[in-house]
Amino acid sequence: MSSGTSGSGQDLGDKLATQPVARTAAPDRLTRWLAWSAVAGIIGAIVIMIAASATRNSWEHVFIRLPAGAPPWELSVRVSLTLASAALWTAAVVGGAGMIAGLAAMRRGGLVPARLLLGAGLVAVAAFTVLPPTGSTDALDYAAFGRIAVLGHSPYVMTPDDLRRTGDPVGRAAPRTWGSFVSVYGPAGTAEQWAAAELGGTSAARIAFWLKLWDAIAFGAVVLALDRLTRADPAQRARAHLLWSANPLLLWVLIAAGHIDAMAAAAGFLGLIVVRKRGPADDPGALRWLTAGLLVGLAVDLKVNYVLFGLGLAWAARRSVTAWLSAGAGAAIVLLPSYLWFGAPAARALFSHGAVASIGNFYQTYFGSRQHMVPHALLLGSLAFLAVAALLLRRLPDGVPALPAVQPALALSVAWLFLWPYEFPWYDAAALCLLALYPASRLDWLVLIRLTAATFTFMPGNAGFPVQHVLHVITTGMLFYIAPVILLACAVALIWLALTRRWNMASPAVIPAEAPP
Fold first, then answer.
1. Residues 6+ apart with CB under 8 A from 436
2. Which residue of 274, 289, 366, 461 has the smallest Cβ count within 10 Å?
3. What is the pLDDT of residue 15?
4. Is there a contact between 170 and 197 (Cβ–Cβ < 8 Å)?
5. The pTM is what?
6. Residue 157: what are its φ and ψ, rounded to 5°?
7. Is the pLDDT of residue 278 over 90?
8. 7: left (phi > 0), else alpha (psi -120 to 50), else beta?
9. Is 201 helix (H, G, I), strand (E, B) or coil?
10. How many Å apart are CA 240 and CA 229, to the nearest integer?
11. Alpha carbon 252 to chain centroid distance?
């Protein structure tokens, strides 16, 4: 050891305890097998998903007419719904198992190659961006809302069905599932959809391409930030790329499907990491809190559930009036003008799904019907969320002390994802972008098991209930019986971890003092 180290022995011990642990012993055979199984599972799942996206119009609904020459593109190969379903169900299981194997390998001292994960993730993002939206038809709803705005109407008043009745080609391509609903996205989401519709013209597929391109850029911004924030520790860097950059389940529900959640998660994530401490007594300053408020406000303006990030930011700023006011001012600068511009219909639209349960959740199975909530289930879900959120705020360890807003935002997001009655797997981006910064713990297993079950449940996507007997049994069985049990078990396990504090969490993550932003 260098003789240039100063300070007491205790100080030296404290410094060494915060440094990445050097791996001098070669990993054993099981650890190596887990690491390479992770790589094989992740890459295999991504390949299957890309192939399914490239043949979308042969099995997925709604059919969309692709423009000549420009993206999105597809292969002329046609596959059956049976083959697509079996392949994608396999990809969900293999991809989820690969993620779990990777985390297990790192727990045993192994290291999944970070560069390989990064490369696989970026290739997948590029491929999904130029292919039609797959696994969900939400991107076509976005296209309809954007087209409505381009035509000078408000998507908070006019519905996709109204647009369809005018004979508009984008309206004709819109799915009928949510056709009678106005937009439930914030004004910034409407602005994004308007811009895509301006660029895409009367082609729903081309509008969807522009939406997916911006999702890809936002996803890549989180990849870059994670890579720089975790560069001091190779194991933490590999973990970040495993949970976010190369996560096949997340790539499928965010980028392949083209969900707006990718942009909202990116804006919120960047806002939370702005308030970084360079030391225990460091104050990020009013300007950083203002910037954080602006970015988190943008996330909320894209999708309202990211108000949880805003609450996390407010919790982190609670001991400083200056910080709290600065963050609040930043959010107000974004939110007030945008909602004033669109008026009361935009605010009312946020609550238009308040009495609807998402299919496949345990409230819908045990307390509601297959389509709508009953009042006591909504009340139960709200009370359960509030109770578990309060519990996690107190009991979830602070795994990233240099980023004080991450712990409360993660606690609130996890409680909401596990306990709220209206959830879809692409909502999990809110937790995963933050969990990627956290040290390993038992929370990882719950988040990944939950994501795997939910992703499997909604595969292959909006193809409807298949008429083939075996596919129908698997689809309905997962939606109404198996997935709800798994999700309920994960929620119970989360509460147990919080009550017992048996997180089994590794040492807090080390964030370099000069890390961005």
1. 226, 239, 240, 243, 244
2. 366
3. 35
4. yes
5. 0.91
6. -125, -45
7. no
8. left
9. coil
10. 10
11. 11
- Per-residue pLDDT, averaged over 320-325, amounts to 95
Domain boundaries, the chain: 29-500
Picking from 41-55, 432-446, 449-463, which range would have the lowest pLDDT averaged per residue? 449-463
CB-based contact 93:232 (threshold 8 Å)? no
Give the three-state DSSP class for 372. strand
Residue 140 CB contacts under 8 Å (≥ 6 apart), including other chains:
62, 64, 133, 173, 174, 175, 204, 208
CB 402 within 8 A of CB 294: no
pLDDT on residue 442:
96
DSSP conformation letters of 384-447: HHHHHHHHHHHHS--S-TTSTTHHHHHHHHHHHHHH-SS--GGGGHHHHHHHTTSPP-THHHHH
- Banded model confidence at residue 23, pLDDT cuts 50, 70, 90: very low
Roughly what angle, to the nearest 10 degrees, separates helices 286-302 and 307-316?
A: 160
Sign of CA dihedral 478, 484, 489, 491: positive
Taking the alpha carbons at both ends of the chain, their separation in whole angstroms is 33
Give the whole-angstrom CA distance, residue 236 versus residue 229: 9
Spatial contact of 240 and 250, defined as CB atoms under 8 Å apart: no
- Give the Cα separation of 403 and 268 in Å (integer): 13
**Ramachandran quadrant class, 45 (left: phi over 0; alpha: psi -120 to 50; beta: rest):** alpha
Are 382 and 284 spatial neighbours (Cβ–Cβ below 8 Å)?
A: no
Q: At what angle do helices 81-107 and 469-477 cross, to 10 degrees?
A: 40
Mind giving me the DSSP string for 47-78? HHHHHHHHTGGGT-SS--PPPSSSSP---S--
Radius of gyration of the chain (CA): 23
The phi, psi pair for 372, rounded to 5°, reads: -130, 155
Which 3 state secondary structure label does DSSP give 275?
Answer: coil
pLDDT tens for residues 400-429? 999 999 999 999 999 999 999 888 999 999
SS3 356: strand
Query: Is 311:412 a contact under the CB 8 Å cutoff?
Result: yes
Tens digits of per-residue pLDDT, 353-395?
655 667 888 887 776 554 455 556 778 888 999 999 999 999 9
Tokens (6 digits) for 158:
């006019």
CA distance readout (Å), 324 to 136, 336, 339:
38, 17, 22
Q: Report how far apart, in Å, the C-alpha atoms of 223 and of each of 117, 245, 358 are.
A: 11, 6, 29
Answer whether 355's CB lies under 8 Å from 378's CB.
Answer: yes
